[in-house]
From TrEMBL, chain A:
SUPFAM superfamilies: Periplasmic binding protein-like II. PANTHER family: BLR1237 PROTEIN (PTHR42928:SF5), TRICARBOXYLATE-BINDING PROTEIN (PTHR42928). Belongs to the UPF0065 (bug) family. InterPro entries: BUG (IPR005064), Bug_dom1 (IPR042100). This is Tripartite-type tricarboxylate transporter receptor subunit TctC.
Automatic annotation (TrEMBL), chain B:
This is Putative tricarboxylic transport membrane protein. PANTHER family: TRICARBOXYLIC TRANSPORT PROTEIN. InterPro entries: DUF112_TM. Residues 21-439 form the DUF112 domain. Keywords: Membrane, Transmembrane, Transmembrane helix. It comes from Ancylobacter tetraedralis. The chain crosses the membrane at residues 12-37, 43-70, 110-133, 145-163, 207-225, 319-343, 355-379, 391-408, 414-443, 464-487.
Amino acid sequence: MEKIKLLRRLALLLASGIVASGIAAAGAPAFAQSWPTQPVKLVVPFPPGGGTDLLARELADKLSKKFGQSFVVENRPGAGAAVGTEYVARATDGHTFLFTSSNHVTVPALNTKLRYDIFKDFKPIVLVADQASVLAVDPALPGKDLKEVLAYIKANPGKFNYGTAGIGSGQHLNTAYLQQLTGIDIVHVPLKGQGEIIAELLGKRIQVGFLVLSTSLPYFKSGEIRPLGVATAERSKFAPDIPTIEEAGVNAFVSRSWLGLLGPASTPDAVVKELNTAIVDLAKDPSYLAVTDKAGMTLVNSTPAEFEAEIRRGYEQWKQVVATANIQTQ
Amino acid sequence: MISIWDGVLHGFVVAATPINLAYCFLGVLLGTFVGVLPGVGPLVTIALLLPFTFSLEPTTALIMLAGIYYGAQYGGSTTSILLNMPGETSSVITCLDGHAMARQGRAGPALAIAALGSFFAGTVATFVVALFAPALASVAIRFGPADYFSLMTLGLVGAIVLAQGSLLKALTMVILGLLLGLVGTDINSGDLRFTFGIPEMSDGINFVSLAMGVFGIGEIIRILVQHEKEGGTIIEHGRVMPTRQDLIQSAGPALRGSIIGSALGLLPGGGAALSAFASYTVEKKLARDPSRFGKGAIEGVAGPESANNAAAQTSFIPLLTLGLPSNAVMALMVGAMMIHGITPGPQIMRTEPDLFWGVVASMWIGNAMLLVLNMPLVGLWVKLLRIPYRLLYPAIILFSCIGIYSVSNSSVDLIAAAVFGLLGFVLVALRFEPAPLLLGFILGPMMEENLRRALTLSRGDPTVFVREPISVVLLIAAAALLIVIILPTVRVNREKVFAE
């Protein structure tokens, strides 16, 4: 009996000890502060593991050290991102924030029945980084560049497939937008996440897909998947030889995929400013840069106003795409 | 590229450095503990520890995280056997005969066989990974949606074999499971199905809630109702170590389980989930007296436990060589590798031989550590059963609640577990088996996805299932299995008719 209790306690101690040592290493704050007065929650509206979660955990670690108060990542996945986002919209403790992706603007563009309003219920704090997404194809499709490949696809309407992470996912909206701009006709195969898109591309069951640049580079290098263009307005520093989709001949095609921090509408402006400054300052920290670089993220570090403008722009853009393509989700 | 044997040897050199050994041990130790706590799984543990691996060498970090993963597989079988609580898909099957053995006072041998079987399977799987990784990666890619659909069909037909009593009841449970699996977002239209306006339900019912509810909580209510006034313990424990007879009986199932698990673990689309259960089906079919299954047959522990451990290891092949995670824990591993600047993919064996072979070799070392760690613990775990109900059950329920909540920080999941607990109690009281229900629940959504995907790709042409060679073989196997199951029943009925 005693042994069992002891063992259990040991296990818990071990687990909590590891956590505590990380926090203790954070050290004491150098000056007295009015905020934060308790641990700060960074709610990530996705399951653990993805890019958003990864950057949130790195930020939590750095901010804990900076503020001398622990920052904790809490995953509240569900309904695209709506479950976690709604949770933060309703938070009133002054210590709960939302670390999310551009799903923040695509989810409301798709779903009119949400119980929160991305403009009224939130204060943007900082758009931290952009993630490049690449239009990639099966190398068997003929054509020397994006224009020629698209022309070939257009000449064979309904013959080819594109994979996405599901209805209303970023890849789905990107492809719908591409279809609207170029008039190509390809069939949607909803899959689950980038892993499956890559598997189906390698298995030659689908021919087109949007992929996160950093995780697909090895396939581009080995020639098993062919990148045609990045979706962002500028080339990525991680693959400067891949043109933007716009440069490669699809006029006006820009799709931005960002990661950023927001607070509920009640967040005091002083806290917004303090968090913004703290995160922007991290750009001077080489260990932070090492993590974002390895994850293929381009730091943006916007002002709150710039972030707000990007949220508005993105929402309007996707609202338009969704209406034209008649994509519906609940 | 270095040759395979050089690779394995190189791997052992990498894995056997003191620092890597230490982290491997830390990983399997942590894994065992979180596996033993009902509901607290490797997913949460790894997510929590991820930031602390940032400062480690990538190989060391991955060795530790992998250790947590397969360590939890070991620990998970402990709760399945002792408490009838599967924390993960893979240990559902272990509940059937493992817990039956525990109730007969044979918890010790069940735990020991689970540990020995897992070690054996770990050894086999390590060599499968080392020998076949490069070739197998390219085979798994050819497995398309039509093939997966047929594999799942074979799985579902096999689910009926799990029935311990009435075929009709087993079938009812499979269908109920399929129906529960329908809850969530329709993959092709994005419409919501049976979510009752609750956003948390839009991604479907949480597996942990369902499994904890129908197995664990349902079982607790049943025992409390039966022994309301006694306030005693589950069982007196008998001998801790398995007998020679136990070992002989387990050898064949462990070998077959290792092979089945190694093969299914390679499939990125959820083959690992099927492995324990495929092995159970095979053992029950091969047994001279299948009626012993479900009543504490040691083969029903040895086979599936070997299979799920083998699959847990070979599922690193699609992860490392294709970057395809087969479950949420593996997806987290991809995240861990990314943060270290390593992108899983076909190039990894060439560009990161230390990491690839080091992790492979560490798996075997980790399994040996687990065996050394777990054999002495068997006696300790068995004593857990001596704790009186009034202390044991509140503790289990508390830990389960923590575990369920920690999956996605959702109170909806807790309420769901409570509702499924009641359902579980009703089912047990009416003598319905919960295992086929869980299998229907796991396989249903995967089957639907692959069916619809295959039909989208074939532009609605259903002959795709018989045109694909792998698919057609699997479908024929399913049909054959169905005939084998149904024929004896028909014969018995006919005899009954003639008797009248």
